[in-house]
Structures are given as C-alpha cells and as structure tokens.
Amino acid sequence: MKVVGGSNFFVGVVLLCLILFPICSLAEKKKPLRFGKGGSFKILQVADMHYADGKTTPCENVFPEQMATCSDLNTTAFLERMIHAEKPDLIVFTGDNIYASDSTDAAKSLDAAFAPAISSNIPWAAVLGNHDQESALSREGVMKHIVKLNNTLSLVNPVEARVIDGFGNYNLEVGGVEGSSFENKSVLNLYFLDSGDYSTVPSMIPGYGWIKPSQQFWFERTSKRLQRAYTAKPEAQKEPAPGLAYFHIPLPELKSLDKTNFTGVKQEGGIGISSASVNSGFFTTMVSAGDVKAVFNGHDHLNDFCGKLTGIQLCYAGGFGYHAYGLAGWARRARVVEVNLKKMEKGGWGAVNSIKTWKRLDDQHLTAIDSQVLWSKSSAGTP
Amino acid sequence: MKVVGGSNFFVGVVLLCLILFPICSLAEKKKPLRFGKGGSFKILQVADMHYADGKTTPCENVFPEQMATCSDLNTTAFLERMIHAEKPDLIVFTGDNIYASDSTDAAKSLDAAFAPAISSNIPWAAVLGNHDQESALSREGVMKHIVKLNNTLSLVNPVEARVIDGFGNYNLEVGGVEGSSFENKSVLNLYFLDSGDYSTVPSMIPGYGWIKPSQQFWFERTSKRLQRAYTAKPEAQKEPAPGLAYFHIPLPELKSLDKTNFTGVKQEGGIGISSASVNSGFFTTMVSAGDVKAVFNGHDHLNDFCGKLTGIQLCYAGGFGYHAYGLAGWARRARVVEVNLKKMEKGGWGAVNSIKTWKRLDDQHLTAIDSQVLWSKSSAGTP
C-alpha cells in the first residue's frame, strides 16, 4: 500500500491522536494519496455493483445452472479477488453501488457493498448512480452514509463550493513520490462528480440526469487552481498535471465513437449509449480546462470500451455486479488504471509519464483483456 | 416612451438629483423598465450593424449602382427609421455592433453606431459579437465604453457574480404596469450574455466561442431568484415570468430546425448555422431553468428565422448593417418583439399574456414580414 503521509504536519496529527480521537479519525480519512516508491499508482474502478440484500438477492443474466448458488455474494467475492489480484492504491465505485429498490435497508446494503474495500484498508471513493437513492435514503442520505464509512476519501460535496448541484462532487490529489522533488505537488488529479439520476424537467427533457453548470463551474475553478499550483515553482511544469474524471452516466459525446476508434465492446441495447437526452456541455468544459485525459463511467453494463475524442479518452468499465443486468456468458468485469511516473535521469521519480488501462474478467484466472495506453507524455497534445 | 419610475424611492432620488448630480446620472441609467399604460412592451433587436468609420466606410453586397452612395450612414438611417416607425421601449444590439478591424477609432465607431439609440432617449442594451474587439479596444474595453454611453442599461458584468467569463453578462427586469397589482413585480425578464468570440482552445476546438459554465451558473441563479420573487406574495404566480435571452452566436441546437418547423429563411452558406463547433450546454440550462421562452441571436446575417425547440423559440434577426456581408436584393432587416399583458376582468393589467414578433425590411415602407406568436400563456408548456 503506497498511501503514506510523511509531512511534519502528519506526524503532529498522529501524536494528537493519542489525545483527541476525533481528529485522529479525520486524519486517517484525509491521509493524502501519493505515488509509491515504485513510481506507479493503480486505480481499480468498480461500476454498477447493484448490491441489495446479499445472500438472498439473486443474480441476473447468468446461466440457469448458476442461479441456485448465485447472489450478491458473488459480487463481494469478485471484489475481494480483484483487490487481492491488483492491490490497487485506490478503489473507485462509479455509482449504482446499490440497487436500492431491491434493498431492505439501504444503509446495510451500502455497508455490505463496500465491505471488501473497507476491510482491505485501501482508500476508496464513490459517486452515485441513478439507482442508489431508490429507497428510504435520499441521494444526500446515501452520500452522507458513504462518507462515514472507514477508509473512504469520498466527500458529500466540496467545502469551497457554496452552491453545487448533486451529492458526491469532490476531487482528490495524488502527490509525487515521497522524497522526490514532486513530493509536494499533486501530479495526478482525480475528479468525482454526481451525474444525477433523472431529468429534473421530465416534461421537457426525458431520460437521465446530467452534470449541471454549478458542478462544471466548480470543476473548472478546481482545475485552474490545481494547474496554477502545478505550473508554479518549485519544479514549475509547463503542462497541467493529468486529470481523470469519474462519474456514473456517460456523456452524449460517446455516441460519436465506434469500433473503428475504440477498444472494447459496445453492445448496450437501444441507442447503445444511455446518456442524458441533452448535452449539458461537460465534455466541452473538460476539453477547455485542458487537464483531463480520461473519463470513466458506468451505467451501461454491456459497454466496456475506451475511445479517444478531442484529446480525452472516454471509458466504460463494464458491469461488475451480479444483481445487475448483464449477459450470461459475457463475464462481469472491472477496469484497472495504472499511472506511471517518469524516471528521472538523475534518479528518482518525476511527473506522470503514462496512463495505462486494462480490464479483468470474473473468470477462473481473472483474465486481463484490452490492455491499452490511454495517455503518454510523449504523445500529449494530439487530439 | 413607457419607461417610468413611479416608486417613492424614485421620487426621492429625483429630488436628490438637485443636490448630487452623480447619483442623478446613475438614477437616469438605472431607471427601471416597465410596461406602459397600454399593457405592452416592445423591443427592437438590431443585429450586426458592423459599423466602422461612417460615411467613408463602404457597403457590402448591395447592387453595383448603390455602391457610390452607400456607407455606414445607411445603417444609421435604417436605425433612425426603425426607431421612428416602431417606437420601441427598448433597443437591443446583439453584437458585431462595430466591425472593429475596419474602424480607425473603435470608441468613435461605437459612439456613431449607437448614436440613433442615444439620441432617441429610448433605453438600450448591447452585447458583444465576435468582431467588436478587433481594434485597440479589448472586449472589456468595448463593453466599458458602451456602459458609459447615454441611455444604455448595459452592464459590463453583474455585480453579484464574483467570477464570470466574458463581458456584457447582465439581466434586466421589466415591471408590470404602474398602479396595477403587478407594479412591483418583474413580469418579463431579459437576459444578456457574452457568447464570446472564438474558441479559447483552438488547437482542440476550432471555431467560434461559447457560453461558459460561470455564465450559465450566473444565469441559473438569476433565473431562480427572479422565479422566487415572482411566485411569492403578493400576486403569487404559479409559473415563472417569461424570459427572453439575447446573445450573439447561435446555439448548435439551431441545426436541428428546418423550414418545416421555422418561420423565415435559412440561407447562410456552409453548414447553415455558425454556432460553436461544440455544445456547451446553455440550451439545456435554459430548458431546465424553465422561464426563457425565446432566444435572439445575430451572427448569421443571412438567417432570419424563428423555430421552436423543447419549448424555446430560437430566433435570428437577420443582418442589419450595410458594412456587413449580406445579399444584394435581400433587404437588411431588424426584428421586433412585442410583449402584451393580460387584461384583467376587474380592469387593469396582469401578467404577460403573449409574445409576438415580426421583422421589418429596409425598403421604402419598412415592410413588416413573418409576424408570428412566439409564446402565449394559453399554449404554455407545450414543447
């Protein structure tokens, strides 16, 4: 595990823990993310667990002979195996974490769904999908429950945004290697957004939700702030640190990708991409900001591709959960992203050099497929 | 002219004028817009004057025999005739007010371009196009010059928005008839936005500018504030007061309109709609806000249609200026909007009942064409 503190501030906080437990608990949650001594940072994306009541909740779309023994516990087992196999530095849950309409107790479903992440002691982050609030717990209630769980870095909303739509908009900074000249810089920026559930004006705009101006404005200001810090001394960089954005509902721009320019499959029924029926401009906002190199969505369980548009990789993770629609014979899967730093000539690690991804299938060997480079410093700037 | 004050506050300010001239001057500019005793409010839209140096600046795209005597002064004459014929309550200039690259002195060009409005004593408002800043005066400089001119209600930017992109984002409220139960309510809301000039990230996104998240967030908050006031007592209304939005560059959504569902013509070359090459979501933001019934753009001189999409009329004004590209034989034109209040059973005027529009051509009789109802209270809510 490469999540380490290291600053004097942190040592002070640890000492204070002996006296003040609440601060200790807060410090534990806020422990900064950081690249490890090996110069890499790995993120496991888990999309659409659709967790409900555990053992009594049946699977969907598995072979008939699997039904008798298949439940939410298969989702749990897959998550445990993925964590064990990949040993990620961060686990990101991109919504529909629970299928709340089938959940007897949403809080318990959330606890059970995230249990493997919690017990792994690996930091994790979550955003909401369109099914998380389909019980007594509202979207705000679900997010408030999540942020209290152990080892999560999730936030209900950023403290610096006085007004923002949705719940679960925040960012995380990943520092350079401890002891390197980048140790006090965020060399990788992670953005988490609430893409909503359904249209707030269904009589005019049908269908799914979208990322609102308040959220885009917050993203834009955050991106600018991070870019100012990254391009300032010491180790002033010319280009912004790469960013990755995680949210549930795909953008309408994914419709312009096809198998000639993506890796993976697009086999979701209907129109193939279940975005909002309107464009709310977040793709334009990200391109303008200039730092986001890849976007990771869930929502469409049967799509698992990555394709590049105007300099940004748009990626699905494929469906993870067993109590979620899927295809019998088409394995549940998860996406892994590995970000590697540049080895400096004088030794030590520098800024981000490359961002790679692959998926793993829930089969006997957790088969890795579709390995690809999403971004590399040498090819930066090509649309 | 139906722009009257009427409140005690206003009487006080007028008295203070005798003592403090600066406040008097400010009060003159800030005199609130209001429906007149006839229950109507008329707006003249002037798109793309493209003013430069006046008499020495030649016309474009007129018949060869007209060239010798045709100049910016034809634009001035057309504006004077329009003001005389329509006697509007407000004149709105939707950008490319000057064609600054052909202007010897941008400030003088602005003064001359707006001169007929200034001397008419009718309040006027302006936003920027993509050509207004093509001289020594920046976009900020042009807007700062405009707001100092007489009788304008233009603002550089709203005071309540701490951060906003562009110059010339503001709103105006039009009060109900003095003495009616709506006299202290804004029954018609006007939004003015800076749609930018060109892409700020041309290597990734080519072409024209767009309305940014900061502006959309301001619009959204302003719309919410106005709706709260309108639906509050006294005379608490169920629906928001109708809004009209004015900005230069058309939205990409106009591409989905065609002659089967619009009134007017679409004869701009190339792709027919010179919007930004990306969607920045402002159409979605307006539909979500729920109050804007019509949008008025310029930019494409050869388009003059209005077409309805998802409950919002999207309108061009057609080209107005003679030092702007056009078509010889296709008259320069302007759009008029007339908003009428509902006559109450007990007498007096109520809320807005209908929004009508027509255009006038710069021919001998200022021929009115394409009269149509853009919105009426009875048909509200139909997409």
Tell me what you see in this structure.
2 copies of one chain form a homodimer. By secondary structure, chain A is α/β, with parallel strands linked by helices. The first copy, chain A, has 2 domains: 1-31, no CATH class; 36-379, Metallo-dependent phosphatases (Purple Acid Phosphatase, chain A, domain 2). Chain A contains 7 helices and 14 strands. Chain A has helices at 8-17, 21-30, 72-86, 106-120, 139-146, 213-230, 282-289; strands at 33-34, 40-46, 90-94, 124-127, 170-175, 186-192, 243-246, 262-263, 292-297, 306-309, 312-316, 333-343, 349-361, 368-376. In chain A, a hairpin with a 5-residue loop joins strand 12 (333-343) and strand 13 (349-361). The longest helix of chain A is centred in the middle third of the chain and has 18 residues, at 213-230. The two termini of chain A are 35 Å apart. Residues 1-29 of chain A have low confidence and may be disordered. Chains A and B meet through helix 6 and helix 7 of A and helix 6 and helix 7 of B.
Task: Furnish the topology, listing elements before pairings.
The structure is a homodimer of 383-residue chains.
Chain A: H1 8-17, H2 21-30, E1 33-34, E2 40-46, H3 72-86, E3 90-94, H4 106-120, E4 124-127, H5 139-146, E5 170-175, E6 186-192, H6 213-230, E7 243-246, E8 262-263, H7 282-289, E9 292-297, E10 306-309, E11 312-316, E12 333-343, E13 349-361, E14 368-376
Parallel strand pairs in A: 1-5, 2-3, 3-4, 6-7, 7-9, 9-11
Antiparallel strand pairs in A: 2-12, 5-6, 8-10, 10-11, 12-13, 13-14
The N- and C-terminal alpha carbons of chain A lie at a distance of 35 Å
Estimate percent helicity of chain A: 10-25%
User: What's the CATH H-level homologous superfamily of the largest domain in chain A?
Assistant: Metallo-dependent phosphatases
Tell me, rounded to a whole number, the average pLDDT of chain A: 92
Name the CATH class of the largest domain in chain A: Alpha Beta
- The CATH topology of the largest domain in chain A comes to Purple Acid Phosphatase, chain A, domain 2
Quaternary structure annotation: homodimer
The total count of strands of chain A amounts to 14
Low-pLDDT sequence parts of chain A: 1-29
Spatial sequence of strands, sheet with the most strands of chain A: 1-5-6-7-9-11-10-8
How can the largest sheet of chain A be summarized?
8 strands, mixed
**What's the architecture of the largest domain in chain A, going by CATH?**
4-Layer Sandwich
- What is the total number of structural domains of chain A? 2
Greatest contact between two chains: A-B, 30 and 30 residues
Rg of chain A (CA only): 20 Å
What is the 3D form of chain A? Answer: globular
Class computed from helices, strands and strand pairing of chain A = alpha/beta
Strand content of chain A: 15-25%
- Helix/strand order of chain A: HHEEHEHEHEEHEEHEEEEEE
